[in-house]
Amino acid sequence: MKIKTDFSRAALLVIDMENGFTDSRSPFCIRGAAETVPVISDLASAFRNGGLPVFMIRRVYRNDGSDVEKTRLDSWLRGGKPCSYAAERYMNADFAEGLEPADGDYIIDKPRWSAFFGTELDIMLRRLGTDTVVICGTTTPNCIRTTCYDANSLDYDTVIVSDGTSSETPEIQSANIADMERIGAEILSSDEIREALGCIM
Fold it and tell me: What's the mean pLDDT when you consider all of the chain?
């Protein structure tokens, strides 16, 4: 397979890989998210080793719930306030074990689904000279997809990591991957991306 993307000015966006979405005890846990931790960790290391930026992006809710989406507020309250620091450690907003940010990583807390919505991500990427975003994390139909569409709207070349993203079911995963490919995102495995990174270093 011929890879179209030039990774020389790429950044890795790791989205919502936090306890509230990865721990099986959390009511917001996404099936399969925990399984992607080693894949994402290895990919993040490859970006860091190549001198390319890594953005660790997460949803952090205020303890009083004043910034929780209306559609999620009831389940958030009933579920013990996951993805906030009012929650138990196993479902709070800390990054999942194995995905702790490294020195030099950029940490962004986002208020909604897309990593671009209401955050400084776009201006930071532009100041770093980034023209390509490589997106991994969870959940594919929500935060991955909205970030992909916003990246496309902002004219970034966009890559989705096929084995570094997760959904509730394989059917949801494949349907959303196919839709993102149709709008122009390149769908690559972590192995393909690491190989491409090796060619430019």
Answer: 95
Reported as a pLDDT band with limits 50, 70 and 90, residue 198 is confident
In the chain the domains, ranked by start, together with CATH numbers, are: 7-200 (3.40.50.850)
For 155, half-sphere exposure in the C-beta direction (CA atoms, 13 angstrom radius) is: 1
Q: Dihedral (C-alpha) 163, 15, 46, 156: value to the nearest 10 degrees?
A: 90
- DSSP code per residue over 47-100: HHHTT--EEEEEE-B-TT-TTS-TTTHHHHHHTT-TTBTTS-GGGSSSBPTT-P
- Could you tell me the pTM of the whole model? 0.95
User: Position of tokens 């100041």?
Assistant: 127
User: Which residue shows structure tokens 């001198």?
Assistant: 51
- DSSP class of residue 36? G
**109, β-bridge pairs:** 58
Residue 31 zone, left/alpha/beta (φ > 0; ψ -120 to 50; rest): beta
* Rounded percentage of the chain residues whose pLDDT exceeds 70: 98
DSSP single-letter state for residue 35? G
Confidence bin at 2 (pLDDT 50/70/90): confident
Q: Please, is 57 exposed, middle or buried when counting C-beta atoms within 10 Å of its C-beta (0-12, 13-18, 19+)? A: buried
CA distance 61 to 81: 8
